[in-house]
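wait is this the right file?? whatever heres the structure
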C-alpha cells in the first residue's frame, strides 16, 4: 500500500509542478500581451493624430483650390475689363461730340 501511495504522491507532485510551470508561462505571455497592447494603443493614437492632420491639410487644400485663380481666368478677366474700358471710352467720345 505504501508503494502505491508513493507513486500517487509523486504523480501528484509532478502534476502540481507542471501546473506551476504552465502558470508561469501564462503569466509571461500575459505580460507580453499587455506590452503589445500598450504598443498598439500608442500606434493607434499616432494614426488618429495623423488622420486628423491629413484631414486638416485636405480642408486647407480644398479651400485653396476654390480660391485659386488660374492664369487663363486672370487673362480672360483682364480682357473683359479692357473691352469694357474701350466701350466706356467710345461712349465718352460720343458724348463729347
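ok assuming it is, sequence goes like this
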Amino acid at each position: 500500500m505504501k508503494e502505491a501511495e508513493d507513486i500517487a504522491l509523486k504523480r501528484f507532485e509532478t502534476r502540481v509542478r507542471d501546473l506551476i510551470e504552465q502558470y508561469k508561462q501564462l503569466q509571461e505571455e500575459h505580460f507580453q500581451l499587455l506590452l503589445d497592447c500598450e504598443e498598439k494603443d500608442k500606434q493607434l493614437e499616432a494614426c488618429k493624430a495623423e488622420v486628423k492632420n491629413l484631414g486638416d491639410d485636405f480642408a486647407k487644400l480644398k479651400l485653396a483650390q476654390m480660391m485659386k485663380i488660374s492664369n487663363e481666368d486672370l487673362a480672360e478677366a483682364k480682357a473683359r475689363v479692357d473691352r469694357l474700358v474701350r466701350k466706356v471710352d467710345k461712349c465718352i467720345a460720343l458724348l463729347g461730340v
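The chain has a mean pLDDT of 90. so i think its the right one actually
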